[in-house]
Design goal:
- It is a single chain.
- The protein starts with a strand and ends in a 6-residue tail after the last helix.
- It is globular and about 50 Å long.
- The protein has eleven helices and four strands.
- It folds into two domains: 138 residues, 3-Layer(aba) Sandwich (Rossmann fold); 74 residues, no CATH class.
- α1 links the parallel β1 and β2.
- The longest helix has 20 residues.
- It has 224 residues and is an alpha/beta fold.
- Strands 2-1-3-4 form a four-stranded parallel sheet, sandwiched between helices.
Length: 224
């Protein structure tokens, strides 16, 4: 069994790993182990680099037979996070993500060394977890029990090339759009229900960066 520690930003991401991804990976002999960033009992959020470094160090150096990856949103990162300020000047979503991840990996490698970092799979969700849910507006509406919002969700989805490029701002980030249309939207609960309803294949088909991340983990081999 290949073990992968998944450092999650919040309960929404943690539940998505447990409820959606874990089963898909289990039959491959890959065991995903999600945990919220920070101390046990913490609810996540506040994704400062210092806290990330502590958690990655604990996973990579404390469990040398396992891999470690990250699952956090670009949208909510503090401006002082490695690469965030420089990423803001990039044009495309891919350039922003690559800029941030390269800077993050460089900083982690300085602290942890190249040998440990060979078991690290860097990932940032662009721009927010809820972007994935727009992979299928019809099932998103069904999953959160708001079928009357299907057309509104479809209109949002059609404005963008992929769900992953839905805007990064306090007014137009995916979760803000959902909350505007449905005041009762609860991130952990409805995020998981919608993702289960949509299904992993549909999300992977629509979200190429997310799909690449999963493909990297699917190709992992036991640590020598």
């Amino acid at each position: 069994m290949i073990r992968v520690h998944v450092i999650c930003e919040g309960q929404t991401e943690e539940m998505f790993i447990n409820e959606v991804l874990a089963q898909a990976f289990h039959h491959l002999g890959i065991y995903l182990m999600p945990a919220l960033i920070g101390k046990p009992g913490h609810k996540g959020g506040n994704f400062r680099f210092e806290r990330l470094l502590s958690d990655v160090e604990k996973r990579l150096l404390g469990d040398r037979q396992a891999y470690c990856t990250t699952f956090f949103d670009f949208y909510g990162l503090p401006e002082e996070f490695p690469g965030k300020a420089n990423a803001a000047g990039k044009n495309s979503m891919d350039e922003k993500a690559d800029c941030l991840l390269e800077a993050m990996v460089e900083r982690l490698a300085i602290e942890l060394g190249d040998d440990a970092m060979r078991r690290f799979i860097p990932y940032v969700q662009m721009y927010e977890f809820e972007g994935l849910l727009f992979s299928c507006p019809r099932r998103l509406a069904t999953g959160i029990n708001q079928p009357n919002l299907e057309d509104r969700f479809m209109h949002i989805r059609n404005e963008f090339e992929t769900p992953e490029t839905i805007n990064n701002s306090p007014m137009t980030a995916p979760s803000k759009r959902l909350k505007t249309l449905y005041a009762g939207y609860d991130k952990p609960l409805h995020g998981s229900l919608a993702a289960i309803e949509i299904g992993l294949p549909a999300i992977r088909e629509q979200c190429s960066r997310f799909d690449t991340w999963l493909s990297e983990m699917e190709a992992l081999q036991p640590v020598a």
